[in-house]
Structures are given as C-alpha cells and as structure tokens.
Amino acid sequence: MYSPDGWHHFVPYGGVHALMVMASAILIAAPALLGRRLNKISETILRRALAALALAYWVAYASWWNWHGIDWREGLPLHLCDLNGLIAPYALITGQRWARATLYFWTAALTSQAFIQPALTAGTASLVFWAFWAAHTIIAACAVYDIVVHGFRPRWADFSRAVTASLVYAVAIVPINGWLDADYGYLGDPSPDISIPTFVLALGPWPQRAVILAALVPLGFIVVLLPWLFSAASPAPQS
C-alpha cells in the first residue's frame, strides 16, 4: 500500500518505485514500437519529435533548477546523465556513431541505475520526483529507439568509443569537482551538506570510491556489450 510518508519522501524498492519503473518502461517502449510501424517519412518525423522533446526537456529542466540563481555545486548539468540527455537527441538526429555508442553504453550501464537504485529523496508531492523520472525515461526512450528502429548494434569499436567519452568526462569533471567542492559524476569529495547516494558511499571513502567507480564503468560496459556479441556469434536458425 502507499505510505503517506511517500508523499514527501521517496522510499526505494517500495510500491511507488515499482509503479514508476513500470510506467517508465511503457513510455520507453512506446516510441520504438510506434516507429517500427511507420513508413520512412512518418518515422523521420517521429524521430525528430523525440529528439526535440529530449532537447526541450533538457533546457527546461536545467533552467527550472537554477531559476532563482545558479546552483554551482549541485545544479549545473554536469552529471553524466545530464550530458547523456544532450547526446541522446544528437545521436537520433545526426546518426554519428560515437554518439550512438556513447548513448547506448551510458544508458544501458549507467542511466539504467536510476531505475534500479534511484538517487532520489523527494516524494511524489515534489516536482523534483517527477522531473527525475521524466529525465531518465526520455534518455532511455532515445536509446531504445535507436536500437529497435534504427538497428544500432554495439561492437567492440563502440565500446572503445564509449570508454573514451567516459575518460574525457572523468578527466574534465574531477578538477571541476575540486574547484566547486561538488560531486558531479559522483567522483568528487564534497562537503557534508551534499548528500552522496548510498550505493556510492558503499564503495568507501574518497578517493577510493572514485577510483572504484571509474574502474566499474568499463566493466559495466562489457556486461551490456556481451549479449550483442553472443547474438552476432550465434548461427542463424535454419528454416
């Protein structure tokens, strides 16, 4: 049953969490299922509309969060999922292989964690709650669309592209975290007033947790790559 406390505070692995995951799954699958049924012209319109929605939402969310002044330590769109929110529409519109690869690996291995272990405390009464789920759902919808409708199939070269993009991100974000006393990408050592997700704290003190987290990323990429490699290696069924 729904707890009254859930109105103000999100509790992971409860009924609200399950409901939001199911709703997100439907919204993620819907554009891809529709896109497969459309002709080329209609599909192009749908793809561009999905990309426009992703970009518009990114701008609206970043603007809303900092509406009353820039929140330098927590409000800049510098988390990996924030950048993925820009890569998603870019990948759909341009078809650039590096963008499609980064979108897939970042979404499958990293953005997906938002659904599994959400770094969220605000309950359903807060706009933050709905913004959190909407942001990650839109990113995942773009990634699934690229796979289902446009046939993206990751390979080892795409793994290298995603690792390179992640390395560039880490190299750039670590000094920014140090300068702002922030924790973007969960790679920083912020002051106590900035909350750190439980699953990140479990990795130990900084800089240990940052090193472990950085090491886990390519391992996660390999995990989400293996099914595609096995699929490509499997012989086609005989008719």
Question: How much is the average pLDDT?
Answer: 94
Order of helices and strands: HHHHHHHHH
Distance between the termini: 50 Å
Number of domains: 1
- Low-confidence region ranges: none
The biggest sheet amounts to: none
What is the overall shape? globular
Rg = 19 Å
Number of strands: 0
Q: What structural category do the secondary elements indicate?
A: mainly alpha
Q: Number of helical segments?
A: 9
Give the strand content: under 5%
Helix content: 55-70%
Question: What do these coordinates show?
Answer:
The chain is an all-alpha fold and 239 residues long. The longest helix is centred in the N-terminal third of the chain and has 26 residues, at 40-65. It contains nine helices and no strands. It has helices spanning 15-35, 40-65, 80-94, 97-111, 113-116, 127-148, 156-180, 198-201, 208-233. The model has no long low-confidence stretch (mean pLDDT 94). It has one domain (4-233). It is 66% helix and 0% strand. The chain is globular and about 55 Å long.
